[in-house]
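Name: Delta-aminolevulinic acid dehydratase
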Amino acid sequence: MNRMFGDRKIGARSVDEITASRRLRRLRKADWSRRMVRESRLSVDDLIWPIFVIEGENRREEIAAMPGVYRMTLDLAVAQVEEAAKLGIPAIATFPNIERGLRDQTGSHILDADNILNKASRAIKQAVPEIGIITDAALDPFTDHGHDGILREGVIVNDESVAQIAEAAVLQAASGADVIAPSDMMDGRIGAVRDALDANGFQDVAIMSYATKFASSFYGPYREAVGTAGLLQGDKQTYYIDHANSDEAMREAEQDLAEGADMIMVKPGLPYLDIVHRLKDAFAVPTFAYQVSGEYAMIKAAGANGWIDEDRAMMESLLCLKRAGCDGILTYFAPQVARVLSER
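Structure predicted for Delta-aminolevulinic acid dehydratase:
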């Protein structure tokens, strides 16, 4: 075997002969060249910050499985959203933790114009009018069984749930929501919400569809955050997508777009990069992902134990979503990411 390293012979051929002089490391040799040819970039404009709101004053509750994330009363939430706006975060997504006594089989409290979710929209819009507000019209935070729709004799009834979700969407829009993001996965809910918004003068309110929400094990900490942990009767596999399926996800997204969705979302995020890529490639519409509570908790836990560099893993996980085709990402890391980006 020829090992004449002095004249760069390795075997029968030199590296230049093997690669036809195409040395791909040339543009990796320096920071300036790596930055110049970088294909995907993460900016503060890509961030949507999910927050949890509760009744009361000057109170926040730590969520054990999500270090650094809290349920907040409106006064504290408004202050945090003001800080988010100063960091340049363009939008927030609000989620309520409802008192147990207000939850019932149908989630009827979602139709109260003065529920905590609607009060949060009004307070935030008044204090921070420049930030976008995204609300979810699904019923799970309002039901006593933890499902996203109305439960009748062990079955989530689709059409009755859709009617209530559409009515709730109108109340949310009237309270100041800029985007309605129904996460329930009921058939026909996007078209029903669009019709209801338009009929009530909210033609400018957009819909971000949780078009491909999978039956995932990564949602656990979120259910603690909104107070549905331990409530769920059965599971959600009759309406969430089987995580083994990608063609089904395509059909769901296509249907939601046909019904009037302005944007689509993939949930969870990192385990479903293939879905993000397929959707963006097929439909070329604004496409988002939700980096869910379980994804957040894993990075936080590993970082706290010194097993990974938390900031680097956080940034890499989000950039992967951008590379796959995301136009934006819902992430509990949003303020932390915004601060890291501002220091670069």
